[in-house]
Amino acid sequence: MRVEQATVVRKEWSSVCDSVIRDKPQFIKRTRDEMVLSSYATMLALLSGYRFTASSCKEKDGSVSLSLNEIDLVVNGATIELAKKEMGSAILEYAEEYYENYSLYSHAPNRKDHVPYVMKALLMQKSDAIGEEIVCA
Q1: Residue 2: its pLDDT value, please?
Q2: Where does residue 91 rank: exposed (0-12), middle (13-18), buried (19+ CB within 10 A)?
Q3: SS3 69
Q4: Strands (DSSP E) found in the chain
Q5: Around Cβ 50, how many Cβ atoms within 10 Å?
Q6: 71: DSSP letter
Q7: What structural domains does the chain harbor?
Q8: What is the per-residue pLDDT for 134?
Q9: At what angle do helices 80-100 and 115-124 cross, to 10 degrees?
Q10: pLDDT confidence of 137, banded at 50, 70, 90?
Q11: What is the pLDDT of residues 20-41, one digit of tens each?
């Protein structure tokens, strides 16, 4: 694996960005810090194995409640489609809150495993698209 030094990346920022978008991710080292610079498309491909799954429950009033398995979120909608749409919005809202409080949430024992789901939601950017991906049982 080829690791670029941060000073080289800084000097060649434009060409490094072009390479990341059109070719491959870049591994970068700055003193003791190591990082990866990647395109959205590559990140989405890396996160494609992470699926949003939910348990569904038909309520007495005919509505549907969904409980997300990966993150402790529960929503209700008149139909399964509307519930999935609501869940997509709830996931994106949670992901934005998580990202705003990343240093706290990513170290919390009950939230640190949410990172890939949060990143996936943030990369997807649209709650409708997130809702369409939810697999219900």
Answers
A1: 87
A2: buried
A3: coil
A4: 3-5, 26-30, 33-37, 53-58, 64-68, 74-77, 135-136
A5: 14
A6: S
A7: 3-38 (3.40.1620.10), 50-136 (3.30.160.620)
A8: 98
A9: 110
A10: confident
A11: 999 999 999 999 999 999 999 9
Is 112 within 8 Å of 102 (Cβ atoms)?
no
Residue 33, classified by CB atoms within 10 Å of its CB into exposed (0-12), middle (13-18) or buried (19+), is: exposed
Helix (H, G, I), strand (E, B), or coil: what is residue 3?
strand
E strand spans, 6-130: 26-30, 33-37, 53-58, 64-68, 74-77
Assess contact for 82 and 134: CB atoms under 8 A.
no
φ/ψ of 102, rounded to 5, equals -55, -45
| Per-residue pLDDT tens over the stretch 61-120 | 999 999 999 999 999 999 999 999 999 999 999 999 999 999 999 999 999 999 999 999
Q: pTM of the predicted model, to two decimals?
A: 0.91
Find, among 82, 74, 73, the residue nearest to 111 by Cα. Answer: 73
pLDDT at 99: 98
